[in-house]
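Quick log. Single chain, no ligands specified.
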Amino acid sequence: MSKTISYAAIKIQQSENSKPLVLFAAPATEINDWAGVPQKARISKDESLDAELLGFQRDDDEERIVKISKFYSDPRNVIQNPLLCAIRNKLGINITFTPGTTGDDKPVVDGTVTITCPDLSKLSLLELFNGAKEHLEQRVPDLTTQDPPKQLAAKLSKLIGHNFFRDDEELDNGEDEHVNADDEEPLEEAVLTQSHVVDFWKELSARVLILEKLGTEYDDDEFLGFSREAMEVYLKPVILVDGQHRLKGAIKAAEISLESDEGRWEKIKNMTGDGLTADDVSSHLLSEKSRNLPISLLLDEKADEHVFQFVVVNQKATPVRAALLGTIISTSLADNELQRIADRLESAGIPLQSSVAATYLAKNPESPFAGLVARGLSGDGADLLPWSVLSQLVSIFRNLRGARYFHDSKIDYADLWKRKYLEQSVICDNWNAADFKSREEYWSSPEGPWRDIFIEFWKAVKERLAKVDYSKAPNYWGNPRTSNIFNKPTLLTLTTDFFAYLVESRQTIDSSSQIKTIVDEWLQDIKVEYFSRDWKLDGVKKDSTGTRKQWSSLWFGYRRDPKALPNIKNYSVLYKGN
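-> predicted structure:
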């Protein structure tokens, strides 16, 4: 069962190569029926449900919604910005535009936009999950060839007290075995590398497997962290690209207005007497109270274009926090979708490749920073490393620029190593065969040698100098507020000093497996006590200029003459040099 509604509209063609825009207005409550808000959020605070929604909008800011509703409560107030929307499917499936008297061959055409919206309230939770799953498979057809994620389903089913997928019944033999090195690379790795879309598809598919087992036994509005509302977003015919708080503020204002209407009970009585249901009455009365909000609807169904529009609008107008922007850019699209807008984002001054690289290292279990970096999602705490710090570390290794001591910034050691030793480094010998223009371009490519070097370097440093199993240890690998090593000044100083050592020792890099040996040589005389002692930092702001320079100077001197550890008192005083 579906509902069809039409609005007077104007279609605008901005250029020959652009998709058209349709401008129209609709009551906020009606917009909410057919427009979904694809939010970027964790599905649950429960660590056993480690998944994220596949969206690009921020979480609702309730305080902002209340403020907007108060603004809208004054009928004289107007917000001129239209809601930015886009169609989810090709034009003609759920959305049609019928030209009026002017015809359809001009840049500006009057007409009617018609929206067909399914009644999602009638669908079961299983149907909603299947619908969202099929939406992803339409975007990435290769997903249809993937095997069902039975192991994930087995793990999740145990969380609700079931054991549907026992090893001897449901799991395929050898499903958990490692792939032989000589075997062909699995499709997921070959075609869909590092794609959050794949991860999200697995989460949906696993829940579909479980819901199929439960059958009619389960009919709640939430299942293993995923709500009906979150699933319905993927089945609505329109995506709200920008303006979620304006829409929800307008709906809240309509609800407040209806509650204060003394004549509403008489209206309800009359309408129910006409055979309408309570839901129909509520919807009709709210629509009467609701503002008509202006809408700019992009007639382009491609997910990459939706994300492009969101990122450009929010980066150029009201910027999203860098951490969330990086997370959104690199986890909302499949690799093939991301590639289509890569050049356009970079040209718009948005650091796509850096965001992808940092997100990979913040999520991938092989990375020493996995799960320890704030990514702009709800639930991120102060005990996580700021996104900006990881981005700086990534930039130094990837671009071979920016490795300067805080206390003496005259020399960029990463750049110096690149100029003197990158050309001789065997690890880049494959640059030509890999179809790159130079060794440097090959090194800095998103999956270039720099990334394995980065991971192996920090693995070796963590193993040599940090503690991972005791969060109160001064050298704990985590919590930048309390750790002597896992914080911006120390991590950047260690990075700089490593490149300085490579220059001092005239080291080339031939393979990532060589890094542990180089790190051992670099730190051979360093005592783990350097970071494991209590530095007595009460009241000390670690990221102040004076503190950064002081810690940089102390490490610089100690690494070159490690006869005695610095006096503890020296860490809490500010740098006195030039």
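The longest strand covers residues 2-12.
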